[in-house]
Design a protein that fits this description.
Elements lengths: L18 E2 L19 E8 L2 E8 L21 H4 E7 L4
Length: 93
């Protein structure tokens, strides 16, 4: 037996991202091991159309996670420990 009711739910809402029109920094790379606190990277989320997010390596004590490869890649489960989402970017620096 079911005691609930089925009704419409609200549509999802999305926060608007700040767009850095001055260009995108270098793409994030799992093989790079010299990221420092404050370093910014771009991360592709779509190729067609091209869409990139802008991330910044967090301050100490989290900065070390930026160099631990795919486990701390931006957009992954543990990526927030290493990277802060700044917004979106387009073009190149």
């Amino acid at each position: 037996s079911c005691d609930g009711s089925i009704g419409l739910t609200a549509s999802p809402s999305f926060d608007a991202l700040t767009v850095d029109a001055s260009g995108c920094p270098e793409e994030w790379s799992a093989s790079k091991t010299d990221y420092e606190a404050g370093d910014r990277v771009s991360y592709s989320v779509s190729d067609s159309p091209s869409r990139k997010l802008l991330y910044q390596c967090r301050e100490w004590p989290n900065a070390g996670y930026c160099n631990l490869g795919e486990g701390f890649e931006p957009t992954t489960l543990y990526g927030e420990q290493a990277w802060t989402l700044i917004g979106a970017c387009s073009g190149t620096l």
